[in-house]
Design brief:
With 113 residues, this protein is mainly α. It has a domain of 79 residues. It has six helices and no strands. It starts with a helix and ends in a 13-residue tail after the last helix.
């Protein structure tokens, strides 16, 4: 059953324990399936919103009523790469340097280094 796959996937990605037989959840999933959306599209929405919201103040919204509700198609049209990257170029260079253990000498040293 598609509903089981979707709810199980949501639980795996979010670390939550939504029931696969919850009437409200099933109603939302059935409504989207009736509109022609696929299991893969549900997974995409779960992936995108988990990437954006997990470990933020929005984590509380990683739930069926938010993800599978009236904004489902909007969420479906988002990509993980569309999410804002708040790291600066300098932070990305420092992260890369620390990962490979090499100082490229591109950035001035900050105090204490």
């Amino acid at each position: 059953m598609a509903e089981n796959v979707i709810v199980t996937y949501l639980n795996e990605k979010t670390g939550k324990a939504y029931r696969v037989n919850n009437k409200a959840t099933l109603k939302l999933i059935h409504a989207r399936l009736k509109e022609g959306f696929t299991v893969e599209q549900f997974k995409h929405v779960i992936d995108v919103k988990t990437h954006k919201w997990k470990n933020t103040e929005y984590q509380q919204y990683l739930r069926p009523e938010t993800l599978f509700g009236n904004k489902f198609e909007t969420y479906l049209n988002e990509n993980i790469n569309d999410q804002q990257d708040n790291t600066t170029s300098a932070q990305r260079i420092r992260n890369a340097e620390s990962i490979i253990g090499k100082d490229w000498g591109v950035l001035p040293k900050s105090k204490g280094e």
